[in-house]
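Work Package 4 report. The design task specified in the project plan requires that, given a folded chain encoded as structure tokens, an amino acid be chosen for each position. We show below one input record used in the internal validation round.
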């Protein structure tokens, strides 16, 4: 028998094993909980980033840096969060030079974002112009001469230029710190002729696609105005003289293309009349 003074041999062993199992499982659960806590804490640290309250700086220096780099003071908190990465000596104190470096990087980031937005808008705008030519003009009975490509291309471009002028003159004059009249006069000598010449190139290549039946001309009907438009936008905000020179050079090339196309069309017309 396995009994001794009312106790059964094997019970103690079973009880010890049970206690041991419980303690082992408890340790495993505690270990898993601690590991999960560490993972949660590390993930929270990664999500939240570095705590701004651990850093110090001089407010007067910060405001001077923001003003010098034309950064809105209302974005001070967001800028500080950005500037933490420029604590080069890792002493949790943002010196003037570190704030300067952060401000330069901030403006470069903003400029890059603006350039991407402008490129997207330019692509959409030129794509819509080409869509009008492809889906509407291409099916018209009056679209029966090569020179019509340039005529309708310029017409579509000037239509968009008109809508854009309303937007700039009536809604963005205060943003550019000028009057609506001054902005309208300026755009009449820059944006309007620029859009017109973009339309010449688009119409020329679309004409070649429509009458010569080469698919790559449809690609050039988009990419050439897109590149010219992008270059114009790039220099219009930084160097007006270069953007104006770009418009003049583009018009010289466009007028030569138009003259050559008109000459070719007259020649073919005479040949056709002789056959009749």
């Amino acid at each position: 028998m396995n009994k001794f003074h009312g106790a059964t041999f094997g019970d103690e062993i079973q009880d010890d094993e049970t206690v041991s199992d419980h303690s082992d499982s408890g340790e495993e659960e505690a270990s898993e909980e601690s590991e999960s806590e560490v993972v949660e804490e590390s993930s929270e640290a990664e999500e939240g980033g570095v705590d701004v309250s651990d850093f110090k700086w001089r407010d007067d220096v910060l405001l001077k840096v923001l003003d010098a780099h034309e950064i809105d003071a209302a974005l001070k908190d967001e800028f500080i969060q950005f500037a933490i990465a420029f604590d080069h000596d890792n002493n949790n104190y943002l010196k003037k030079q570190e704030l300067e470096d952060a401000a330069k990087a901030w403006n470069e980031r903003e400029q890059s974002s603006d350039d991407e937005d402008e490129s997207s808008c330019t692509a959409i705008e030129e794509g819509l112009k080409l869509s009008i030519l492809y889906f509407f003009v291409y099916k018209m009975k009056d679209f029966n001469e090569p020179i019509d490509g340039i005529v309708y291309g310029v017409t579509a471009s000037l239509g968009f230029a008109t809508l854009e002028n309303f937007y700039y003159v009536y809604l963005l004059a205060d943003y550019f710190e000028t009057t609506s009249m001054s902005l309208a006069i300026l755009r009449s000598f820059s944006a309007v002729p620029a859009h017109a010449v973009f339309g010449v190139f688009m119409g020329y290549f679309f004409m070649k696609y429509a009458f010569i039946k080469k698919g790559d001309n449809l690609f050039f009907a988009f990419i050439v105005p897109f590149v010219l438009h992008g270059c114009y936008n790039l220099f219009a905000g930084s160097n007006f003289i270069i953007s104006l020179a770009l418009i003049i050079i583009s018009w010289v090339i466009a007028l030569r293309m138009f003259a050559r196309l008109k000459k070719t069309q007259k020649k073919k017309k005479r040949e056709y009349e002789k056959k009749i």
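The chain has a mean pLDDT of 80. Validation will be extended to a larger panel in the next phase.
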